[in-house]
Amino acid sequence: MTIDWVALSVFILLFVIVTVMGFLAARWRRGDLDLLHEWGLAGRRFGTVITWFLLGGDLYTAYTFVAVPALVFGTGANGFFAVPYTIIVYPFVFLVMPRLWSVARRHGYITAADFVRGRYESRWLSLAVAFTGILATMPYIALQLVGIQVVLAAMGVEGTGLAADAPLVIAFIILAAYTYFSGLRAPAMIALVKDVIIYITIFVAIIVIPIKLGGFGNIFAAADAGLKAKNIPQGVLLAPGQFSAYATLALGSALALFMYPHSITGVLSSNSRHAIKRNAALLPAYSFLLGLIALLGFMAIAANIQPRAPYGAQWIVPGLFLQMFPSWFAGFAFGAIAIGALVPASIMSIAAANLFTRNIWREYVNPAVSDRDESNIAKLTSLVVKFGALVFIIFLPTQYAINLQLLGGVWIIQTLPAIVIGLYTRWLHRWALLIGWAVGMLSGTGMAVAQNFSSVYPLNVFGTVIPGYAALYSFILNLVVAVVLTWVFRAASAPAGADETHELDYTAVAA
Amino acid sequence: MNTRSTSESARPARGWYLLLLVPFIAILWVPFYASGEPAVFGIPYFYWYQFLWILISAVLTAIVYFVTREPEGALPMAETLSSEDLDR
C-alpha cells in the first residue's frame, strides 16, 4: 500500500496534541510526584467526571475496538458476549468497589495486594496477588500495540524489518516519557480527548455506514447470509449449544475485569465512594458504544471487507473505515484507535509498576526504601514494563500475545476470593486461599492449553458436556478448594494471622 | 464517622440492593433472548434486547444509588475539596 498522507497528517496532528497534554498533565492538580500515591494514583483526587473518562478509557481499550468486531465478523453472535459482560459488571462494581476504596483510603493501600497483606497478614498471599496482576497485565499491554500497528498499516505505514517498526517504537517512547513524568495524571487527561474523538467516530460510523449499506435490516440479512456461507449455520444468532459458553464468558469476564490492576488503579484514584457508585450507573454509556462497535463486524461482512494478512480479521475495522470514509475522517478514526491504545497502556504500566514497587521491591528487596525512592522505582518499572511489551510485539508472533491475554483473564479471576470475599469476611483461611489460588491457576491454564488456547472448555458433568469459560470453571474449583481447606486449617488451629483492618474501615466515607 | 447514623439510614434501604440482581437474571439466562424475532428496524431481538438491558441496568443502578445514598463528605478533606471545583 502507498502512504495515505491526508489520513496520516490528521493522525499525526491528533498524536501531537495528546503528547503535549500528556506532559502538561504533570502540572494538573499539582502534587508531589515523588510520592507513589501522587504518581501512581494521582493523589486519589479524581471526581466523578474524570473517573468516568479514566475508567472508560482504561477498560474499553483500542484492542477491544479492533478485536470485538473481528470476533463478531468471524464467529457471529458469540462475539457479542462483550456486551452482556459489560452489563453485569457494573452492579458488581457498585456493591464491591466502594468497600475496597474505603479500606484502601483508610490504610493508604495503593494495590489490591497491599489490602490482602493487611487483611490476612500474609506476605505470600500478597505476593501471589501481585504476581498474578503483573503476569496478566503484561500481554494486555502488548496487545494495545497491535491496535496501533493495524491502524498504521491501514495508512500505508508498514513494511518488513526493523525500520518498519520505527513508528511504533516512536509512539511508545513518547508514551513511556509522559507516563514517567506525569504518572496517572497523563492518561487521565488524554482520556478526555480520546473519548470525545471515539464518541464522534462511532456515532458518525453508526449513522453513515448503515445508510450506505441500505439500513440495519440489510446489514443483518447480509451478515446472516455471509456467516451461513462460512459454515456458521445459526447465522447472526446463537445455536442452543452455545448458550452456556455465552453466559459463562459474560459472567467470568465480568468477575475478572475489576481484578485487573489497571481497573483497581482507576477505582482507587477516585476521590470518594460516591464517585465510584455514580460511575457504576454512568459507565454503561461505554457499553452502549461497545455494542455499536461490535456491530461494525456485521457491517464489514455486509460491505464485503476481507481480512488481510498478517492482521487477519483484525483488519476489518480499519478496512471498513477506509472503504466508507474520506481519508481525513479515516485518519481521525485511526487517531482515536491509536490514542485509545495509549491510555490503557499507560495505566496498565503504572498499575504493574505500583504492584512491583509496593509488593515485591518493598516487601522482599528493600523494606527500608524511602518514599522518594519508592516513587522512582515505580517510574523506572513502568518504563521496563512498556519496553518488555514492545520487544514482545516486535520479535514474537502476535498470536502469542493474544493467547497470553486470554490466559490473563483465567489467571486474574483467581485473585477474586482473596480480594472480594476478603472485603466482606475473613472467614477463608490465608493458606486455604493461597492453595486455592494455585489450584485455580494450574487448572485454568491446563484447560485453556488443552483446548489449544480456546477460552471455552467442554466440561463433562456426569456424562453431560457443558461448554463454558475456563476462567469460571477454574475459579469455582479455586473456591471449593479454599472453603474445604479452610475447614481443615481451622480444625488444625493453623494461625490465621492478624487483621489490621476494622469493620468500619470498609464503609468509611473519608480517611 | 458516626456509626449509629450509618446503620440507621442503611437498614431500611437494604432491600433495594436486590434490584442489582435483576440484570444478572435477565442476561445470564440466554434462552430469554436467543431468538431473532421480533425484530425492530431490522435489528434481531437478540441484539436489541441486550442494548435495552444496558439502559435498564444503568437505570436500576442509579435507582439503588439514590435510595441508598450515604451522607456525603462526613469528614471534609481540605485538599480534595479545593481541587473539586469543576469535577463533581
Would you write up a description of this structure?
The complex is a heterodimer of chains A (511) and B (88). Chain A has 511 residues and is mostly helical. In chain A, 72% of the residues lie in helices and 2% in strands. Chain A is globular, with a radius of gyration of 22 Å. Chain B is mostly helical and 88 residues long. Helix content of chain B is 49%, strand content 0%. Chain B contains four helices and no strands. In chain B, helix 2 runs antiparallel to helix 3. In chain B, 15% of the residues are buried. Mean pLDDT of chain B is 75; it is low at 1-10 and 74-88. At the A-B interface, helix 3, helix 5, helix 10, helix 11 and helix 13 of A face helix 2 and helix 3 of B.
List the helices and strands and how they pair.
The complex is a heterodimer of chains A (511) and B (88).
Chain A lengths: L4 H20 L11 H4 L8 H12 L2 H14 L6 H26 L4 H9 L2 H32 L11 H17 L2 H28 L2 H15 L13 H15 L3 H8 L4 H10 L1 H19 L13 H9 L2 H39 L5 H25 L2 H15 L3 H9 L5 H21 L5 E6 L2 E6 H22 L20
Antiparallel strand pairs in A: 1-2
Chain B lengths: L2 H8 L11 H7 L16 H23 L10 H5 L6
Helix pairs in contact in B: 2-3
